[in-house]
Design goal:
9% helix, mainly beta, 7-stranded mixed sheet, two-stranded antiparallel sheet, globular, 9 strands
């Protein structure tokens, strides 16, 4: 089940708010490996923020993930550098970043198209834990 641990906003390059969501954090090795595996549903207003110790090339897969997701890779300056839309569920297909990323945001498939979130936009977040 989803546990709200923070809030994340998607922002245009000029700083206009595109959409805000509630997030869970995946900031330990275990939480990053588990991610959203085994979950059967997620609301459009929910997501997961993966935080890595260093900025480097990242790659995700959807093994044991039942929800199709949009996967956004974000650099250390909070800029979205790669967006993969409508991931294939229960798949070992690789979804790599196109450049180094320190953060990854997972939202429900179709979210980025609906709210116009794209590469070059930014994120900001706050931790409520």
């Amino acid at each position: 089940t989803f546990t709200k641990e923070g809030e994340l906003s998607f922002l245009s390059p000029s700083g206009n708010l595109l959409k805000s969501i509630d997030i869970e954090f995946a900031d330990t090795d275990y939480d990053r490996q588990l991610g959203l595996m085994f979950r059967k549903k997620m609301k459009e207003t929910e997501g997961m923020l993966f935080i890595f110790p260093i900025e480097e090339m990242q790659s995700f897969w959807m093994r044991n993930t039942y929800i199709s997701l949009d996967v956004l890779f974000v650099d250390a300056n909070f800029k979205i550098v790669t967006v993969h839309k409508n991931s294939k569920t229960l798949s070992d297909q690789s979804y790599p970043s196109s450049s180094p990323a320190k953060y990854v945001v997972e939202v429900i498939a179709g979210f980025t198209s609906k709210y116009g979130v794209k590469e070059g936009d930014y994120i900001s977040f706050k931790n409520l834990r």
